[in-house]
Write a structure and sequence with these properties.
The chain is of the alpha+beta class and 88 residues long. It has one helix spanning 67-86, and strands at residues 17-30, 33-44, 58-66. The relative contact order is 0.18.
Length: 88
């Protein structure tokens, strides 16, 4: 669940992706602090919020996530996967 009031924030650049065909996760380090790096390859989705590139452009994104947020992401992914499986 989002922890802020709106999807679009003044200081954000928004990239909505679809057709994600590759996902890679690795442990990494940023300034001596352990983080989890998440890479995704896909294409830019149709979105009124998107302000990067054009719909259909191929994109690759990387995110360096601090460990507490990575653990939280793991739990929310597990819950979302369970929910998606039960909807089948």
């Amino acid at each position: 669940m989002r922890k802020h009031d709106t999807y679009k924030q003044d200081h954000w650049t928004v990239l909505d992706m679809e057709h994600v065909d590759k996902v890679f996760v690795a442990n990494s380090e940023t300034n001596g602090t352990p983080v989890v790096r998440i890479d995704m390859d896909g294409s830019i989705a149709p979105s009124t919020m998107n302000d990067v590139g054009e719909e259909g452009d191929n994109v690759q994104t990387s995110a360096w996530v601090p460990l507490p947020e990575a653990v939280e992401l793991k739990h929310t992914l597990e819950n979302a996967i369970d929910a998606a499986r039960s909807e089948r």
